[in-house]
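Memo to structure team: turn this sequence into structure tokens by end of day. - J.P.
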Amino acid sequence: MRAHPLATDAVLAFGAFVAMVVGSFADPHGPHGPTFGTRTPEPFSLLLMLLGAAALVFRRRRPRAVLAVTCGLSLLELTTGEPRAPVAMCTVIALYTVAARTDRPTTWRIGLLTMAGLTGVAMLAGPLPWYAQENIGIFAWTGMAAAAGDAVRSRRAFVDAIRERAERAERTRDEEARRRVAEERLRIARDLHDVVAHHIALVNVQAGVAAHVMDKRPDQAKEALAHVRDASRSALNELRATVGLLRQSGDPEAPTEPAPGLGVLDELVDTFRHAGLPVEVIVQLDGAAGPLPAAVDLAAYRVIQEALTNVRKHAGPGAKAEVSVVRVGPSVEVTVLDDGGRSADPAPEPADASGGGHGLLGMRERTGALGGTCFAGPRYGGGYRVHAILPVG
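Reply from structure team:
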């Protein structure tokens, strides 16, 4: 209906035309109450109903013009029709549209003018007595149309205001988060620069002195090397203290072994297999193209580690995982799939599936820092999929 408003209005106009034609065969003044089929509308009244319904097709494009046309057709029917046909139904729909698409003062002015004009003409110039219920019905129907349109407009404005407020709050929250992250990164970079720059400069100077006096004055060279040792120890202590501010309470100590990579992928997968998660691994790397850069190797390892951790935590019992690492041209594609498990209920979505958790956020930041991309989302038919593209260059 939103994609094809003209077609929707055409269907509405056709329904209004059918309702008006059917209603024109009803006589409200039968001997035993309203009766159907005891009167027949005039051809001129059928023409007015057809023209009024045709005008309703354009009610959203030109609401005021459509209201003016339907009012004119209704006035013709009210003054000439005998028996009277319900052409005023077109005016009721057009007045509702105007009230729903304008402000309240305009609705009051146009609504009162329409109500008073149609009702006054029906009472004074129509074939029925001024007190006939059909004349009062015109006043009631046009009034309800204006009130309903104004209520719909108010509700739409209220919903739009809530949506806009929520979007603005979301933007403000995201901007505040980005600002705090940027400030924290700047502070950490400044602290690391202060620590490293001072001590490395001191080490450089003392190493140069030791190299210069090593042959002629070994005692002074020994003293310079002692200063180098003290400066390096101080630098390490201050770096450890600065980085320690970033650690959580339960984080392990900094490892002394080399950073992990795809070379120890089998060991990582074995830990998950021992924990009860079957994992199949496919690695296709072109050895002729040379080894992967250390940053890419580490990023691929961390993506697989985090993805398998999510499978172990969030997938149902009996879940199986598949890991593939394929080198495609200038990039490495890492894919981790799981089937969601055999549980009767659907596997719960990971807590960070919306992009706000630390796991997926860390994978996206890690791949984005290398110029790559990372997609994570549910699979069709159940399970989850993580796909990362890491440029080798």
